[in-house]
Amino acid sequence: MQDHKTVTKENVVDFLIDMFNSRGQDEYLGEAITQSEHMLQCAVVADQFEAKESVILASLLHDVGHFMHDYDFDCADHGIDSRHEDVADDFLKKFYPPEVTEPVRMHVDAKRYLCAVEPDYFGKLSEASVHSLKLQGGPMSAEEVKKFEESPHLKDALDLRRFEEAGKVDGVATPKIEEYRDLMLKFLIN
Hints:
Layout: H1 12-23, H2 35-48, H3 53-61, H4 65-68, H5 84-92, H6 98-117, H7 127-135, H8 142-148, H9 154-166, H10 181-186
Helix pairs in contact: 2-3, 2-9, 3-6, 3-9, 5-6, 6-8, 6-9
């Protein structure tokens, strides 16, 4: 597979599809599904909730940073936060507009935010998500909440987060990544 640092606008969609197909069968951080199953489920849930196409695409691509960071797949088990959201953002913003990349960049902080402002949200997290929350800084402080709420992408990031939590169901049939080719092409920046 091509190194993500050499990807161009002309081949980014093929690169993403190849990455889903070649790396997507990796374990998804202690969940009962694979990486690709999770991301595809998130996109399906976003579509079922009639999210904007940009949010459907963000839901599909939100965890690509797990395929690109330099840590072992089990780094969280060793107390390491891979900052996969930043890795994904650094890669995706070369090819996609903020309406796609900002929810991706914000999806971890959206979990921290929701844990701070919605008392019942923490109880909805999977065991693996609770573990990663600790590594990611735990629930936001009041000051962090206020700053996070200033983003024009707040709603989309929170929607993505909710789709992300719903996209962890073992045995759910999903479309193939190739079915999202047109959507990935549609949002490429010039």
